[in-house]
Structures are given as C-alpha cells and as structure tokens.
Amino acid sequence: RSPFKRLLIGGKAGRIKRIKHIKNMRRLEGELYGSIITLKNLALVQKEKPLSADYIFETLMNNSMALRPAYEEMITRYRNGRDEEAFRIFADRIGSRAGRSFASILSKLDRINPSETVKQMEVLQNMLAEERMTAAVRTAQRNSVLVTAWASASIFALLINFAVVVVFMDTLGMLGHLF
Q: pTM for the full model?
C-alpha cells in the first residue's frame, strides 16, 4: 500500500494523520514552488556564466526550511558520487509529481544550459499553478454540492413539516366533528 492509503485507515487517529500529511504536503509544495523560483532566478542572472550544480544545491538549501533536510541528504549523496540515488531520494521525500519533475531537472543541471533551465522552471511553475487551480476548483465544487445538499434537505424538511401540519389539522377537524 502507498503511504497515503495507509493514512486512510485507522479511525480518528488515521484522519488526524491524514490531515497532518496533507498540511505537510502543502507546505512542501509551497517551498518547492519557492525553490523553482530561486533556481529560475539563478539561471536568469547567470546566463553568461553557468553555476556549478553543487553551488545551486547549496543556495536552494539555504533558501528553504521544510525542504532543508531533503536538500542536505541530496547534497551529501551527490558529493559522495551517488547522483541517481541522491535525486531519487529527494523526489521520494517530496512525494509528488512536481517533486519528481524538479528532482529530474536538478539531476541535469550540469548538462543543460541556463536558458534551458529557465524554460524548464517556467513549465514546472505552470504545472504547479494548474495543480493549485484544479485543487481550488475541486474544493469549490465540493463546497457547492454540500451547500446544495443542505438547502435541499432544509426544503424537504419544510415540505414534510407542511404536510404533517395539514394532515394534523385535518385530523383535528375530523375529531372535532366526531366528539
């Protein structure tokens, strides 16, 4: 099972873990967006003289809080010559499609020129913006359905109440004629 599916099981404790997991993912996605902007700015400023990947990783680490442990682990493995493992672990730490894409771009920093890096960062920024927009639309749709359901339930209760009152009044009228 995936870690997220494991969080779905477990009653109240599972729900609390799931909420914490979602909040952590949002925080990581926010910092990832900041890292994308930082990398894009570094690439724009240094178009003429490309920076080393190690320097870029250090800069990204220094400008992050939640992703700092992931960057530290990635840098350690990168400096020890375990490049593929470093970027795979970084992608796993973030745990999203955008994180995997960003890790893939980081793995190619030494081989691509800064203008290509800028293009890749713009694509990644657009992807994250679209994901946020999709999540916002889904939330709005869910809220709309909930409000509609509550309004429908209220109207239904009102109609039931009206029917009961009419029947009760008719019953009282018939009982009045009998006695």
A: 0.71
- Segments in the chain forming alpha helices (H): 3-8, 11-45, 53-62, 68-79, 83-94, 97-107, 114-178
User: Tokens standing for 100?
Assistant: 């995997």
Query: Mind listing the pLDDT tens digit for each residue in 36-64?
Result: 999 999 888 887 777 888 899 999 999 99
What's the distance, Cα to Cα, between the start and end of the chain in Å?
71
The Cα-based distances of 135 to 54, 77, 92, 140, 156 in angstroms read 34, 34, 22, 9, 31
* Secondary structure of 4-39 as H, E, C letters: HHHHHCCHHHHHHHHHHHHHHHHHHHHHHHHHHHHH
